[in-house]
């Protein structure tokens, strides 16, 4: 892959899983999730429809699709966490992020609903996460699409990174296009 495209795809670099995840790291990631919706709102507010309809990279999603994707993805993550806590080794339902991003409301809909949803969802998700004991983060679920078992402690790190990753897509696009 061309280095420029790699940088556009992964402005923060690819996710690097942590080997040793201490309770302090879990708390830091929960705080990342707690503050994410307001950080997203700050960078998204004021973007015009024309700006929202710019892709963050060639053949990539538009900024509008990225914002709607965040709501879709984080809703699924919240449900996966709840399943892992309430069931023994559940199998989660995969979904096609690419197809969801092609749905009309994701391609053309106002971002306000996804910004509001993320704010409410993250408040609830963080409330839930803060009720968990350290041992709860060892619970797992199985993803049949990836043929992979994931522990919640690792998934939490992925989603803290995921928000920052897509936030960087938006801010880097703003910089490249001199909208800041």
Give a nutshell description of this structure:
This protein is mainly α and 180 residues long. The chain contains eight helices and two strands; from the N terminus they run αααααααββα. The chain has one domain: dinb family like domain (Four Helix Bundle (Hemerythrin (Met), subunit A)), CATH 1.20.120.
Helical/strand content category: mainly alpha
Total number of beta strands: 2
Shape: globular
Give a quick account of the main beta sheet: strands, pairing sense, barrel closure.
2 strands, antiparallel
CATH top level class name: Mainly Alpha
What is the strand arrangement across the widest sheet? Answer: 1-2
Structural account:
The protein is 62% helix and 4% strand. The model has no long low-confidence stretch (mean pLDDT 96). A two-stranded antiparallel sheet has the order 1-2. With 180 residues, it is mainly alpha-helical. The protein is globular and about 45 Å long.
């Amino acid at each position: 892959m061309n280095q420029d495209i790699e940088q556009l795809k992964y402005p923060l670099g690819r996710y690097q899983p942590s080997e040793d995840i201490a309770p302090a790291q879990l708390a830091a990631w929960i705080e990342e999730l707690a503050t994410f919706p307001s950080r997203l709102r700050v960078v998204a507010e004021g973007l015009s429809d024309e700006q929202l309809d710019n892709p963050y990279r060639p053949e990539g999603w538009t900024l509008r699709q990225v914002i709607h994707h965040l709501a879709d993805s984080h809703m699924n993550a919240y449900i996966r966490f709840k399943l892992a806590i309430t069931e023994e080794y559940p199998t989660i339902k995969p979904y096609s992020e690419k197809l969801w991003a092609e749905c009309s409301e994701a391609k053309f809909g106002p971002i306000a609903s996804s910004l509001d949803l993320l704010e409410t969802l993250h408040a609830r998700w963080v409330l839930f996460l803060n009720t968990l004991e350290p041992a709860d983060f060892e619970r797992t679920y199985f993803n049949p699409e990836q043929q992979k078992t994931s522990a919640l402690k690792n998934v939490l790190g992925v989603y803290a990174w995921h928000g920052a990753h897509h936030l960087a897509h938006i801010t880097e696009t703003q910089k490249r296009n001199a909208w800041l």
